[in-house]
Design goal:
The complex is a heterotrimer.
Chain A (H helix, E strand, L loop, with lengths): L1 H10 L18 H6 L2 H29 L2 E2 L7 E2 L3 H8 L1 H21 L1 H11 L5 H13 L2 H11 L7 H8 L11 H29 L4 H8 L4 H28 L4 H7 L10 H11 L6 H30 L1
Antiparallel strand pairs in A: 1-2
Helix pairs in contact in A: 4-15, 5-10, 5-12, 5-14, 6-10, 7-10, 8-13, 10-12, 10-13, 12-15, 14-15
Chain B lengths: L1 H26 L11 E7 L5 H17 L3 E7 L4 H10 L5 E5 H9 L7 H5 L9 H4 L12 E13 H6 L11 H15 L2 E4 L6 H12 L5 E2 L6 E2 L4 H16 L11 H9 L3 E7 L3 H8 L6 E5 L9 E10 L5 H20 L1 H13 L14 H10 L8 H8 L7 E3 L5 H17 L5 H18 L1
Parallel strand pairs in B: 1-2, 5-8, 10-11
Antiparallel strand pairs in B: 3-10, 4-8, 4-9, 4-10, 6-7
Helix pairs in contact in B: 2-14, 9-10, 9-17, 11-12, 13-14, 17-18
Chain C lengths: L10 H4 L6 H4 L2 H33 L3 H6 L12 H8 L3 H33 L4 H12 L3 H13 L13 H8 L2 H12 L3 H9 L4 H9 L4 H17 L2 H6 L8 H8 L5 H21 L1 H5 L2 H8 L1
The chains are: A mainly alpha, B alpha/beta, C mainly alpha.
């Protein structure tokens, strides 16, 4: 090897003498690269580069381009400036979809935020069978979401003999219309979504509760604090970080909700459960004979802008934790 | 070092073979043109069929291949959906022959998104015998037939005879006016606890049925032709139809508790005996029977009550189209398949009997009446050929068959049909799920929206 | 994770929670705590386990019993045939196999990309490594919804190769491989491995491939387990993407197929099909409970 490389070295010898030494990186030739295992490294890096390149970076770039184009897959795309964004912003359904999505997010917080926290705090005080508690809480999370929705759709049968209406009947309530009414459809969706997701939140809180500094409880007890005051003044403040994280995660998740409205109600009744992602889907795949892909990507990008801000906050908050 | 290189080489081989497989996957679709030798075509088969129906289909394929030794037929489950059609076309995953509804034929032909097989079709002996209003659905502006009408329907009022009897109604004398429909619905829901009259509302079917009811009351959703088309969604007949639904839903409470039906789910609930009456395509019986195990004795169907000037029954149908990705040889084979499988059973005694025999042997319905795609004479001739093999309770269809030829059939709105229907879905849903829905305001909104759709296309 | 391992803290103190050990000895506190926890247990059983048990029951109950007495327990006996009918006639077996193929392929590609990627970024560290790491991290900020349409069009016409992956399993496997979260997770784990071991292996003449295969991977079983389980679960759950890229029912997984066949199946058979689809994820959960319920649960939540 050295004999082969020496002629090359002499040609570059005009450079200032050995002050930088032979290992100066700027002078690396392809041959050096090869010798140092550069090719092997590249081969090992290939799966990542190819998969991310083709199925992540390229489509992201494409989204930016498509949002200013009119395309129907058949004829060549045409540059239309900001027309797609204007079209989306002028769509009367957009306001409805945004409002519905926010409504879903708010309901999801009301149903899905305090309950898992209360359950986790209570479970953290369990001395025996804690595993059983958390396994039970987590079980719905592993049920495939489609199965859960289809099952609950049957439970939500609005006739008096429906499963939930039968149960409600035992205590003299109902029958409720559940999905069949514009005002109760969304809460019904959120109820199922909460059932399906709450277990994961409980586990996160449980993990965080392990880290609560217990000497503070003793300090509080010295001050004569009861259980409630200990929870309020010691436990919750220390969970602030994780509470904030789950809040953001939940908002990011709920703003992309699709499965529940798509399978439960198809966005109905009367668009009462039409969400932003359903609207994107409808633009791209819902209109007859070829979709409005430009409008779909334009709306996706607008949603992404909002979500990117939330994600950035999320990563700022989590960084001190994970490193 | 050596082993590292070997591994690098191995990894590269892996990546290359991966790429190779990918290419192979892509080119395995029917891009290759082979003028010589046997042609293989892929034909579509309905989704969700019982094994017996699949067997019947395979039997017909065997007969076809015997008659055409140089054609191989493969099947592919296919359900028409306008939403993924463009993508399937671009992705080359369409079967060579597939059914499309009348509503989308014109648009596909105008955009050249299906193969122009009009020269091949023109050579078929019955090419000029189609009912002209029906033939128009598969023709371009010059009258060339790109897609072949294979079935037609007029909307009908389907009813459950068992529920009629339970409610003290006469199943042989179904309602003949909309007032009688309303009374019957109330009786059924009061006496049996099931939905008296149910309505589709989802996936554009709400607009489809509302348009049907509008036609039956003498209204139209659009007026004019081509670029001159204007929306007339807020017409008096539509208002009356929605008002009737509102009364049945909120005053009589005779529409049950499910208001998010689409075509598949309403069929399912009707077959399960949860629905007294509903409006859908008149040729629905085979689906109810083969896909939802409907008890034939409980099934009844009649024509829609027509009221007011200009009232008519909405009619539509299905075209058989050939993929624009098919080679010339495949197109020719595809048209032969259309002729054999879809048409010959209507025009040729031998084929009609052969088809009926296969169906009867496999317990598939034979002789369920449908709106003829040719003239009435051809239709009655065909029914006579297979008379001995008929296994559906024809008397249950009598209220329909006795009257359907006397009713004017009105085609669906010609421009952006599915989009117009989609705009009307929320209107129907609102009336059925919101007691205080403002019908006039809803229709005014829909009117603006539909006019916008028409202007854009 | 501070509190637990403070030097000098006795085990009794470290084990304590909000209620002090002293309070726990008081009857009133123990009583109300017991009632609360008992109530929680009952709620969890009813809400968490209830619907799943109901599904298991309904899967072997005739349709009419389920409709007339949805909460009755086998008023007319058990109908085991539902399961075989669903498995065979409703072709759940076929879609089950599709789901398995999708899950295994997605698992393979996620693991391949995450381990090789994490290895390159953490151990080999080429000069372009930082650039790639930055680009990979950036994708974490791009929500999946943005990719929906452009990725779909990419599947229809893959750049460079100009082929369509529509209706092939590749269309699901490969995009799932592009998980920045996995790469990050594995890279972090590799970062924590002792460098001396790598150096020793290099001195022994191990090239980059052997280093990965014989040294790094065997030391990384915990993280590979985490990535694997979540890869399989994620593939099992996926709905919208396979719905779009696998329009041919022959290739569809259970999640896509179940809603589509619902209108054609009798209720009892349909519920049996739902139950069958739930068995494997629940079995996985029971087998790897610790993994699910430990901190990795956070990972699952992030990936949604």
């Amino acid at each position: 090897m050295t004999t082969l490389s020496s002629p090359l070295r002499t040609t570059t010898a005009a450079a200032p003498p050995s002050s930088s030494g032979p290992r100066r990186r700027a002078r690396r030739t392809p041959r050096d690269w090869l010798r140092d295992g550069g090719l092997s490294t590249l081969v090992i890096a290939l799966p990542m580069i190819l998969v991310f390149g083709v199925f992540s970076w390229f489509p992201i770039g494409r989204a930016l381009v498509m949002s200013v184009q009119q395309t129907n897959l058949i004829s060549t795309p045409e540059f239309v400036g900001l027309d797609n964004f204007v079209f989306v912003l002028q769509d009367p359904l957009l306001g409805k979809a945004v409002a519905n999505t926010l409504w879903f997010a708010v309901l999801a917080l009301v149903f899905g935020y305090p309950l898992p926290l209360a359950a986790a705090v209570l479970m953290s005080e369990v001395r025996r069978m804690r595993g059983l508690f958390s396994a039970l809480a987590y079980l719905p999370v592993v049920v495939p979401p489609v199965v859960a929705v289809l099952l609950w759709k049957f439970f939500y049968d609005a006739s008096p003999t429906g499963v939930f209406n039968t149960i409600a009947g035992w205590v003299g309530l109902g029958p409720f219309p559940w999905l069949q009414d514009a005002s109760s459809a969304m809460p019904s969706l959120v109820l199922e979504a909460t059932w399906a997701a709450a277990g994961g939140t409980v586990i996160i809180y449980l993990a965080a509760l392990v880290g609560v500094r217990t000497e503070l409880y003793e300090a509080a007890e010295v001050d004569g604090a009861g259980v409630w005051r200990k929870i309020w003044h010691v436990t919750l403040p220390q969970l602030r970080g994780v509470l904030f994280i789950t809040l953001i995660l939940q908002v990011i998740g709920t703003s992309q909700v699709f499965l529940e409205p798509f399978l439960f109600t198809g966005g109905g009744p009367n668009n009462a459960t039409l969400t932003i992602l359903m609207l994107i889907y409808d633009y791209a795949f819902g209109s007859s004979l070829g979709g409005n892909y430009g409008a779909a990507t334009a709306l996706s990008l607008m949603l992404a802008g909002v979500l990117a801000v939330l994600s950035a906050i999320y990563f700022r908050v989590t960084r001190p934790w994970s490193s | 070092m050596k082993s590292a290189q070997k591994r690098a080489a191995f990894a590269l081989v892996g990546v290359l073979s991966l790429a190779g497989t990918l290419t192979a996957c892509g080119s395995s679709s029917d891009a290759a043109d082979e003028p010589e030798g046997p042609v293989t075509i892929e034909v579509s088969i309905d989704a969700g069929l019982e094994q017996a129906a699949i067997d019947a289909f395979d039997e017909r394929i065997a007969q076809f291949e015997e008659a055409n030794p140089d054609i191989q037929v493969e099947t592919k489950e296919f359900t028409w959906s306008g939403t993924t059609f463009a993508a399937e076309l671009a992705g080359g995953t369409l079967p060579d022959v597939f059914p499309i509804p009348f509503t989308d034929g014109r648009a596909l032909i105008e955009r050249g998104q299906i193969a122009d097989v009009s020269e091949l079709v023109a050579e078929l002996p019955y090419a000029d015998q189609f009912n002209p209003t029906i033939a128009a659905a598969g023709q371009d502006a010059e009258g060339n037939m790109w897609a072949v009408p294979i079935a037609a329907y007029n909307q009908g009022l389907h009813y459950n005879r068992a529920l009629f009897e339970e409610a003290g109604l006469d199943p042989d004398n179904p309602p003949a006016t909309w007032d009688e429909v309303r009374e019957a619905a109330k009786a059924i829901s009061d006496k049996t606890g099931q939905a008296g009259y149910a309505h589709m509302t989802q996936s554009n079917t709400g607009g489809w049925i509302l348009t049907t009811e509008t036609y039956a009351l003498g209204g139209r959703m659009t007026e004019g032709e081509g670029e001159e088309t204007t929306a007339t969604v807020d017409n008096d007949a539509t208002v009356a139809a929605l008002e009737m639904l509102r009364e049945m839903r909120w005053e009589d409470n005779s529409m049950g508790s499910s208001f998010l039906y689409d075509w598949g789910t309403i069929n399912q609930d009707f077959a399960a005996g949860k629905i007294g009456m509903y409006v859908s395509g008149g040729a629905n019986y085979p689906n109810l029977f083969t896909q939802n195990q409907m008890n034939p004795d409980e099934y009844g169907v009649t024509v829609l009550p027509l009221e007011g000037d200009d009232a008519g029954t909405l009619g539509g149908g299905t075209l058989a189209a050939v993929s624009s990705a098919a080679s010339e040889a495949e197109q020719a084979a595809a048209v032969k398949w259309i002729d054999f499988y879809y048409i010959s059973k209507l025009t040729d005694q031998e084929q009609a009997v052969a088809e009926a025999e296969v169906a009867a042997e496999t317990d598939q319905p034979v002789g369920a009446p449908a709106l003829p795609i040719f003239d009435r004479e051809t239709y009655e001739q065909q029914q006579a050929w297979i008379k001995d093999l008929v296994n559906v309770p024809l008397e249950n269809f009598a209220p329909m068959t006795n009257q359907m030829f006397d009713q004017p059939v009105i085609p669906e709105p010609a421009v952006a049909t599915q989009d117009v229907y989609a705009a009307l879905d929320p209107v129907v849903q609102a009336v059925l799920t919101d007691e205080n829905a403002d019908i006039d305001a809803l229709l005014a909104d829909a009117q603006t929206q539909v006019q916008g759709l028409l202007d854009r296309s | 994770m501070a509190g637990n391992n403070r030097p000098g803290a006795g085990p009794a103190v470290a084990e304590r929670g909000i209620v002090s050990s002293h309070d726990r000895r008081r009857a009133s506190v123990r009583g109300s705590l017991g009632v609360l926890q008992g109530g929680l247990l009952v709620t969890l059983v009813l809400a968490g386990l209830g619907p799943i048990l109901w599904l298991a029951k309904a899967a072997v109950t005739p349709t009419q019993d389920t409709l007339r007495q949805p909460l009755g327990l086998f008023p007319n006996g058990i109908d085991w045939a539902n399961l075989t009918t669903a498995w065979g006639r409703a072709e759940i077996d076929h879609y089950f196999v599709n789901t398995l193929i999708l899950a295994v392929g997605a698992w393979f590609f996620q693991l391949l990309v995450a381990t090789t990627g994490g290895y390159v970024l953490s151990v080999l560290r080429p000069r372009y490594g930082n650039l790639i790491f930055g680009l990979v991290l950036a994708t974490l900020f791009v929500p999946a919804v943005v990719l929906l349409v452009p990725l779909y069009l990419t599947i229809l016409d893959v750049p460079l190769l100009h082929i369509s992956l529509l209706n092939t399993f590749w269309a699901v496997w490969l995009p799932m491989g592009a998980s920045a979260f996995n790469v990050l997770l594995v890279k972090r784990f590799f970062d924590g491995l002792p460098r001396e071991v790598f150096e020793a292996a290099r001195v022994d003449g191990a090239g980059p491939f052997r280093l990965l295969w014989s040294v790094v991977l065997p030391m990384s079983k915990p993280i590979l387990g985490v990535v694997s389980v979540f890869a399989v679960i994620a593939a099992w759950k996926d709905y919208l993407w396979p719905l779009l890229v696998l329009p041919d029912p022959d290739n569809q997984p259970l999640s896509v197929r179940l809603p589509a066949i619902a209108p054609y199946l009798e209720l009892d058979v349909f519920l049996a099909a739902l139950a069958i689809s739930t068995v494997l994820p629940i079995a996985l959960f029971l087998a790897f409970q610790r993994l699910f319920l430990s901190g990795a649960g956070l990972g699952g939540a992030v990936k949604g």
